[in-house]
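Give me the fold.
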Amino acid sequence: MQEENPWQTKGSKVHYDNPWIRVREDQIINPANKDGIYGVVEFKHLAIGILPIDEQLNTWLVGQYRYPLSHYSWEIPEGGGGLGELPLESAQRELKEETGLVASDWKQIFEMHLSNSATNERAIVFLAENLVEGMPEPEEEEKLSLRKVPLETACQMAMNGEITDAISLATLFWASANLLR
């Protein structure tokens, strides 16, 4: 059941805009019928996650330093896709760039909203199978590490806090429930 929107927007002002995000502040009337403000970060790209799985149930993790967190992070292969680009095409490109892998079988496994109290960021996650290994082709500003690990190990890393990225966690929990049973 979908309920009516209890929020009213009286006005909106953009405070920041770049090629990746736009930040706006809305003047609102909240569900308690009181005036207020609401800050929203609008993403200009779709978040893409890929779970590559080989015949032995191995997967690949990508490591990189995440500037906003000041923290090194292990993640499934991820990237951004243009809003006018097919999500599958974005996933195929990102998998090749980050891991060198090319998959012949693709399946969209779920969609999720990230930090939906403050952003409109949407993610689509794919399962990639029947893999051919090649050389990664990272973008020039990316400094990536690559690890091939058993899927069970990656899921354990998610369970014990070694992996903290939201898309990776959701994907590895999905894999644990759907691929490792």
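The chain has a mean pLDDT of 95.
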